[in-house]
Amino acid sequence: MTSVSSFPVLSFYVGVILLQLGFVIREVGAVCISDTKRIIIRHFVNLLISGVVNCSLGYVLALSDGGVADKFIGKTIYYPNKFWDYVFGLHWIIATITSSIVAGAVAERCRLIAYFIYTVFITGFIHPVVRHWTFNKKGWLDDANISYQDDAGSGAVHVMGGIAALIGAMMIGPRTGRFEPSLKKDFNDRCHSVPIAVSGGILLLIGFVGFIWGCREPFGVYHNRQFTEVFLTNPFVSSFIAAFTSLLINRYFGKKWSLFVAINGALTGMIAISAGNDFYEPYAAATIGLNAAIVYRAYSVLLVRFGIDDPLDVVSVHFGGGSWGLIAVAFFHRSKGLLHTWNSQSALILGWQMIGMIAIAVWTAVLSGIMFGILRFFGILRVRDEVCDEVQNEGFANPVYELGDIETEDLETVDSTVDGEDLPKAHKYGQHSVGDVHL
Fold first, then answer.
1. Which residues in 249-300 belong to E strands, given as ranges?
2. C-alpha–C-alpha distance, residues 202 and 186, integer Å
3. How far is it, in rounded angstroms, from Cα 129 to Cα 60?
4. What span, in angstroms and rounded, lies between the C-alpha atoms of 210 and 18?
5. Angle between helices 160-172 and 84-105 (to 10 degrees)
6. pLDDT tens across 159-211, in order?
7. DSSP 3-state assignment of 434?
8. CB 271, CB 295: distance < 8 Å
């Protein structure tokens, strides 16, 4: 086993920092301003909770027995010799990302206590088991020299996170009035800051590049791959093509130009390329990005048709991009793909990719369904409807309480004088404050 070079380590940690900032900023900008405080709190606490849970329990489940996925779940503590600290941190951050994905699908109506509970369950159990299946090329997702491939988490992170987000959105239900025709425009314009949301999306794109590059080293040591220039350019090619295609599709079918759609398309293309990035030629990266945009649009429309409210389109972006990314490996792999080598071995690769994707989806759907179902049964999943109605009635693009609307009795009025002259009255906020957190 080789040592870890400095560039992948640095790119990974820079990438994950930008990812966390991107998740926060994008979600803050894309939902009503009254939910801002809750968003910041839950993302910050997510790092703390997932760090403790994943490093104490999840790490054991994921990397037991040397990280060899020859069993359903790990039981024996194992620490790699020379770079255990890097792998330790790597899996903690990856687990954190999965719960951050879910947060976007339940935005504006999920209680903080429910968020803390599902973060523990996802980062401590659901994701580590999936990571155990996919960490190494030795195990049940393997047949001789034909292996399931997922280099930077298209399946283990994005399919898993996307399915958990889908189940969460279905269980928690849509925002009050989301699918009422009279309120359609209000919900379309709910984003309170386009610049903030777009800035978050750009940070996510930069973060995913560093994440893909950084993930290559700890998993790449099992492949003995060579560093190539194609590996650096493919993520950008796929992402840019996906963004431009998404923009055109929305202009043709949605009759408008949408910067949010372009950002989401770019993220979908970045996620789709991550399963086998440095095994693709540039033309394959462009094709993968083109199809990623189509998949993203299809899932986005389908969710609305079924009445599933996903404010940030995270299911379409992460599950759509991740699932297509796993399938694309079987077609575009430069030496084993169906388009390069039409034989039984390449067909088996497609089969293993499909099996891996289905296994991850079923495992996540069943466990997430049980988890969110219990939270819903005990009434601790969703913020009270009266709170949602209060936010809705006060306006989406403005604070819940305007300064002129605060009752006089809720203010503390202080008279001040200096040298006998009256100064303007000073007011202190009473019980109302913008962005109050409802547990």
1. none
2. 25
3. 10
4. 9
5. 30
6. 999 999 999 999 999 988 778 776 665 565 556 677 888 889 889 988 888 88
7. coil
8. no
DSSP letter for each residue of 30-77: HS-GGGHHHHHHHHHHHHHHHHHHIIIIIHHHHHGGGG-BSSSS--S-
Predicted confidence (pLDDT) per residue in 288-304, tens digit? 999 999 999 999 999 99
Angstrom distances, CA of residue 112 to CA of 39, 86, 146, 252, 282: 9, 31, 44, 39, 44
Q: 3-state SS of 3-31?
A: CCCHHHHHHHHHHHHHHHHHHHHHHHHHC
3-class SS at 176?
A: coil
Alpha-carbon distances of 108 from 28, 185, 224, 361, rounded to whole Å:
10, 17, 46, 25
| Nearest CA-CA partner of 218 in 130, 152, 154, 274 | 152
Instruction: State which H helix or E strand residue 427 sits in.
Output: strand 426-428
Which residue matches tokens 């990623």?
A: 292
Where are the alpha helices (H) located in 73-221, listed in sequence order?
A: 84-105, 112-121, 127-134, 160-172, 184-188, 194-220
Q: Which tokens belong to 283?
A: 């033309």
If one counts every other C-beta atom within 10 angstroms of the C-beta of residue 201, the result is 23
Residue 388 is encoded by which pair of tokens?
């949602």
DSSP-assigned letter for residue 381: S
Q: Cα angle vertex 314, ends 182, 202, to 5°?
A: 105
Residue environment code for 42-66, b if the CB has 16+ CB neighbours within 10 A, otherwise e: bbeebbebbbebbbeebbbbbbbee
Residue that has been written with the tokens 């099996």 in this structure:
355
In this prediction, residue 230 carries a pLDDT of 65
Amino acid of residue 79 = Y
Helix (H, G, I), strand (E, B) or coil at 335: coil
DSSP state of 277: G
**Please, which residues have CB within 8 angstroms of residue 324's CB and are 6 or more apart in sequence?**
272, 288, 291, 292, 295
The DSSP symbol for 156 reads I
Beta bridge partners of 428: 412
Q: Which residues contact 8 (CB under 8 A, 6 or more apart)?
A: 213, 214, 216, 217
